[in-house]
Amino acid sequence: xxxxxxxxxxxxxxxxxxxxxxxxxxxxxxxxxxxxxxxxxxxxxxxxxxxxxxxxxxxxxxxxxxxxxxxxxxxxxxxxxxxxxxxxxxxxxxxxxxxxxxxxxxxxxxxxxxxxxxxxxxxxxxxxxxxxxxxxxxxxxxxxxxxxxxxxxxxxxxxxxxxxxxxxxxxxxxxxxxxxxxxxxxxxxxxxxxxxxxxxxxxxxxxxxxxxxxxxxxxxxxxxxxxxxxxxxxxxxxxxxxxxxxxxxxxxxxxxxxxxxxxxxxxxxxxxxxxxxxxxxxxxxxxxxxxxxxxxxxxxxxxxxxxxxxxxxxxxxxxxxxxxxxxxxxxxxxxxxxxxxxxxxxxxxxxxxxxxxxxxxxxxxxxxxxxxxxxxxxxxxxxxxxxxxxxxxxxxxxxxxxxxxxxxxxxxxxxxxxxxxxxxxxxxxxxxxxxxxxxxxxxxxxxxxxxxxxxxxxx
Length: 459
Ligand SMILES: Cc1cc2nc3c(=O)[nH]c(=O)nc-3n(C[C@H](O)[C@H](O)[C@H](O)COP(=O)(O)OP(=O)(O)OC[C@H]3O[C@@H](n4cnc5c(N)ncnc54)[C@H](O)[C@@H]3O)c2cc1C
Fold this sequence. Notes:
alpha/beta, FAD/NAD(P)-binding domain, 14 helices, binds flavin-adenine dinucleotide
């Protein structure tokens, strides 16, 4: 016989205990409501996660923030979470087209002029995209059909700018130019503060980390709620047939509530059936929601940041092997040394298909090429493959397939569910800073405030 959980009564149910859902819940609670947060996974935090190695906290998911991220920084401040600058002194390395160069070596890895022109062109094109409705661009269908690879092959003549286009897309969106529509790239740039801001550390979106890890934001928000989030409780259906109440259902939950926020990424959201009894999956919602965005983050921990002895910052950009980018996440120059290798798009997929020993040997061999033999003897090797998380589907954020914006309408991600009592939240629902922690916080605040307004209107 199937287990039927007893029906609980709730005020507002928030589906998803990532940063967006928890922000929404905290905002609702601050305005006098009693939210119940329901989470499919066995922890809060979603695409943020922390891991402690010898007293050093590693950010396995979302980590960095910049000056334009006003809401998440204000939230951190309210929660008593400080910021640590990411700036690491020393020279960056470039391993491009088989040639290894140091940023200070006098041999530029690529033409700054050509790359500058590329960024200017992208800024110019993205200026016409409304981040609240990318599909409303007059040439939306054309821009959305065209892959960034095809566009770059036609428009970008300088080989360095062409190479940089691939690197930029991998770094920012964790996908390949062959998988990404030009419209989505332009939208992403516009939403996130522009290409210069998005790619920069100092003064840009990667300027700081959260002391204690970005997941601490979620843990503290969860701890502030009167009702602790219910974990291991996936939501599969929201029934809207009851006159005053919604019925939120899943294998471990049946909750009647007045209003709900669905704060989950677009892929899992498309699998939640919303409607009266008897309604199946909504055919008008995205069927091709599976994202091509895919990143594996590898933390390699050493007893000290030995690369600093050679005047290196620990940062690498590469176009050859599986590792595309390396950053230094050490907490200063006197504790453990932490290199973070990012593998993105098809590189990540190919790497994940290898046995664990081969994967580790590949990454360590790249690090040894860049930082010397000492890189081959880490204290710890921590690999986080976000592709394998069943309730995430797409990281850093969902990347819709080509044609998706134009096919599904201008407000595809951002629009509201049909029922007035329900709101979407999640970084992919935010016109500003889509894909970032900042977007998650803004979407959560927006969903909560809009539900509160709606509630007041009905009283
Ligand atoms: C490797 C990596 C690096 C990143 N780096 C950065 C960075 O440096 N800076 C930055 O700003 N952003 C970064 N991001 C992006 C950032 O982490 C995300 O934008 C943000 O955490 C998304 O929060 P969210 O609440 O919208 O979604 P999520 O964190 O995905 O939360 C959604 C929650 O909903 C749950 N859920 C899903 N389906 C259901 C269901 N049916 N029922 C119940 N629960 C469900 C999920 O388990 C999850 O906990 C990174 C992401 C990754 C993965």
